[in-house]
Amino acid sequence: MARLARLALDDDEVGRYAVQLSAILEHVDAVRRLDTADVPPTAHPFPVENVLRSDTERPSLDREVVLAQAPVAENDRFRVPRIMGEAP
Amino acid sequence: MTGYETVVGLEVHCELATATKLFCGCRNAFGDEPNTNVCPVCLGLPGSLPVVNRRAVELALRIGAALNCKAQRSIFHRKNYFYPDMPKDYQISQYDEPINVDGWLELPDGSRVGVERAHMEEDTGKTTHVGGGGRIHEAGYSLVDYNRAGVPLVEIVSRPDIRSAAQARAYVDELRSILVATGASDGRMEEGSLRVDANVSVRPAGATEYGTRCEVKNLNSLRSLERAIDYEVARQIELLEAGERVSQETRHWDEGDSSTHSMRSKEEANDYRYFPEPDLTPLVPDVALLTAAAEGVGAMPAERRHRLSNLLAAGSELATRRDGSTDQVVTVVDLGLDELVHGAVAAGADPRLALARAANEAAANPDAAKLLDPMAFAALLKMESSGQLSATQSKEVLAELMSKGGDPGQIARRLGYEQMDNASLGSMVDEVIAANPQEWRRYREGDDKVAQFLLGQVMKSSKGRANGKLVAEAFAFRRDA
Amino acid sequence: MTASPAPELGSLAGIAASVRAGERSARAVLAVSLDRVRELEGDLHCFNEVTVEAAEADADAVDRMVRAGLDPGPLAGVPVALKDNLCTVGIPTTCSSKILAGWLPPYDATVVSRLRDAGAVAIGKTNLDEFAMGSSTENSAFGPTRNPWDLGRVPGGSSGGSAAAVAAGMVPLAFGSDTGGSIRQPAALCGIVGVKPTYGVVSRYGLIAFASSLDQIGPFATTVADAALGLEVIAGHDPMDSTSLDRPAPSLLATLDEGVSGLRVGIVADFLSAGSECGDAVVAAAEALAAAGAKVDQVRIPELLLGLPAYYVIAPAEASSNLSRYDGVRYGLRVDGPDAETMNARTRGEGFGAEVKRRIMMGTYALSAGYYDAYYGQAQKARTLVIRAFEAAYRDFDVLLTPTTPSVAFPFGSKVDDPIEMYMCDLCSIPSSLAGHPAASVPFALSPEGLPIGVQVLAPALGEAVMMRVAASLEAAAPREARGPVTP
Ligand SMILES: [Zn+2]
């Protein structure tokens, strides 16, 4: 789970979270056991549809402002260490 | 590859030709300075929220309609995975409720390929790998430009109905024509507006079960698509023949060594944890959206090819393909010059000649050709058919007509293409006969090859002004006299 | 130790009227506010950053407008505090997390722009539980905020800094965000008014997301009228937020004094645990409303108890996705590594605190293949059941009453090691979050040890006006000493 969430945890943390997570899962078990045949899911409190904007250009940010926040920038781009995985 | 059948399904990502990105007002443009078309939304800055671009929805519906899909109520999901080119570390995409489903595409040879879905999603940024020859794993580090992040995409997923590399190529070619014809995309593969992944498998001929498939990526041109499928089919057959099994995996086409390579990453199989995007509302193809999607869209290429083919003489020997079209028809429709041809023919031009001039000479400069007045084009073609202009002269006039416009008759006169009167033509023919007695003898003895030579001599001395048909008639008259 | 009443800054309307009339300068009002901050901030730690220079510049701009004969707006010269998860251009916005330390947003949240347009003067960014996950402000990476009523106790959370700043009289108005109770619970624990509006009434653009389908921004104030004015200013449609409701901002002040005569008020019996001081306060509140002419009855809505477990699936699930972007690539903290994947993991491992990591893991689990249907899918259906139960109850009642919290402010450290115990703080506030309904907490009583107790008023979607009317009636019936501001 920590790998999927991309979190580096030490052994101590792993142990602690394992215990706490199973306690939380136990607590939310009421939801899992619920009989929900014929109950539709609610993803959103209000059934609003087709909220759209027009295809009109708006000003972008200044590159200097954007890159000033980058941990490391080079050549007007964001720099990252080499990437091991492939994009899906 | 006797004994095996190739099975291919294609996933085509198409960048939409909107002015702005899918969820923000940044410019959707290729080739701008890095990280200049970015804002809080497409950089995924904390607190920013997406709002869907209406035009992108219209174009997605337009693509769906062109591919005979059913438009339906759709929602966006988040596809969660970490990657530096993805600003939010999730991609907003459509998952189990896409906007277009269940369509098909007819290829020029008349075959049909099913389209499973054509859904909307956002593009990622662009990563440049520095060091290690640009290859990702050997790179020292990578640089990211987010100009492309958030550009609207439609992903068109075909059914596994394709049976050869050539058919795969024809499918993408036809799809590209449709995308361009509808104005949904510029269709430029070299700029990445159109990106193709191929799911390839083989099975024993006659089998009904599909074989294990491999997904082939990095297909940057129609040529690499065709070559990669051929390679992959051969590789899989070789494995099966050796009694081994094809393993389901993603493979990378390497243009350099003309082969595919396994892209096994160190990560386990991805778990994208799809869930409905809470920041967006559902899309419903209502009358307003469907009307705007259909607005200004003419007939699709297949239908236009049919119409153009029907225009040609019935049962024409040019009709070599099943749908009656020819390479010229395909070219003319592809370049959008079919209306020009129809207009010229309606004004009395010969259909075959109109098609030929459109597919060859006009096609050299399609933008100018589209602005041609069909009446002027027809007038020129009639001058050529009647022998008033030679083919060479006609082409010159057409070039002038496309670059500067005007009246073809006047252009011909200005270029000195006055029709030669019969007397001067006759004396020119007589001079050539006098100067080439041996060739004239051989001509009279029925040597056809020398006829071309004599004709050429007259054309030369007339500086191309003579009408070839009339010159040939003049030689024949003198021989038969 | 007990707190003593603090000097009142005056009502928002009063401050704005005097500034608009040129009787008092915005700069002078600001000075009073900043003096109070200087006096108490060392004890309380309400702020991650007090932006004195920016505030002075804003106050001067208001004063210039007044001198030029222009109207700076309904909050002219009113000092306000902003929860540090609202983006402010050029001012650090941290979510009280190490992972965002030093980040300077290049844009303002819509709420921040609206406040400035209304003439308000923002004085700083208030402390919170990291990424708004918590009920005590103990999860801040920059240290906890203390409760002005008792420095040994928590102010509640996650908007603890904003609540404590108002309760201590530093500002008359502050803003927080509420996902499962993060405005109402600290308001109750600090003896002030806190309002969570209907989902979609206030734009979320520029609010750093915790759980997108639940998050709403709302006001803290010492009086119902001030909270109503604060909400009126920030409400209204925003094209930058697709979930923002396309309707005009609610008019609240106009009907605030109309009373409760004839209104049907339901006491949610499921939340009245026997003998609890918070439950007793609700019963007393109902009696007060009855005396003012309301028809009061008890109602059982057992489905609301599904809210807590459903929330602790939905909120972490959305959060796990919302917090993926903190990966060390574009902004904020980076802890380097030999490759991008290791860099991401180290950055997140070190940059996030324990509660945030716990919820990311919980949410990742709830969404993962094979568990989605059992957890996230089921929780969404439980959400439907909660909404249906509310719908049924609102056929018989105009508003519902519950305690805001199961207990009064608790001592530091008493719940940090037990996540479940901490989660129980939100028991009564979560159902209306899941339904997207409005809810307000009003200070109504003092516990035997002199700590404030809040009563929660719930209303159906877009029922803010009637909800605030009821809140105003409760306020009128409550003892003055039950509400802030106080001096620790
Ligand atoms: Zn943008």
Structural overview:
The complex is a heterotrimer of chains A (about 90), B (about 475) and C (about 500). A two-stranded antiparallel ribbon of chain A has the order 2-3. Chain A has a domain at about 1-35. Chain A has helices at about 10-25, 30-35, 65-70, and strands at about 50-55, 75, 75-80. The model of chain A has no long low-confidence stretch (mean pLDDT about 90). By secondary structure, chain A is α+β, with helices and mostly antiparallel strands. By secondary structure, chain B is of the alpha+beta class. Chain B has 3 domains: about 5-295, no CATH class; about 300-415, no CATH class; about 420-480, Orthogonal Bundle (Arc Repressor Mutant, subunit A). Chain B has 16 helices and 15 strands. Chain B has a 9-stranded mixed beta sheet with strand order 3-6-7-10-1-11-12-13-14, covered by helices on one side. In chain B, helix 1 packs across helix 4 (about 285-295) and helix 5 (about 300-310) runs parallel beside helix 7 (about 340-345). The termini of chain B are far apart. By secondary structure, chain C is of the alpha/beta class. Chain C is built from 15 helices and 13 strands. The termini of chain C are close together. In chain C, helix 2 (about 25-45) runs antiparallel to helix 3 (about 50-65). Chain C has helices at about 10-20, 25-45, 50-65, 110-115, 160-165, 185-190, 225-235, 275-290, 305-320, 340-350, 355-365, 375-395, 420-425, 430-435, 465-475, and strands spanning about 5, 45-50, 80-85, 120-125, 175-180, 195, 215-220, 265-270, 295-300, 400-405, 440-445, 450-460, 485. An 11-stranded mixed beta sheet of chain C has the order 2-4-3-5-7-6-11-12-10-8-9, sandwiched between helices. In chain C, strands 1-13 form a two-stranded antiparallel ribbon. The chains are: A alpha+beta (about 90), B alpha+beta (about 475), C alpha/beta (about 500). At the A-C interface, helix 1, helix 2, helix 3 and strand 3 of A face helix 9, helix 10, helix 11, helix 12 and helix 13 of C. The site of zinc ion (ZN) has 8 residues of chain B, from loops.
Helix content of chain C: 25-40%
Tell me the distance between the termini of chain C.
Answer: 8 Å
* Fraction of residues in helix of chain A: 25-40%
Tally of helical runs of chain C: 15
| Envelope shape of chain A | flat
Query: Which residues of chain C sit in consecutive blocks of at least 5 with pLDDT less than 50?
Result: none
Shape of chain C: globular
Terminus-to-terminus distance of chain A = 19 Å
Listing every helix as H and every strand as E from the N terminus to the C terminus, the arrangement of chain C reads EHHEHEHEHEHEEHEHEHHHHEHHEEHE
Indicate the low-confidence ranges of chain A by residue numbers: none
CATH topology annotation of the largest domain in chain C: Amidase signature (AS) enzymes
Which structural class best describes the helix and strand composition of chain A?
alpha+beta
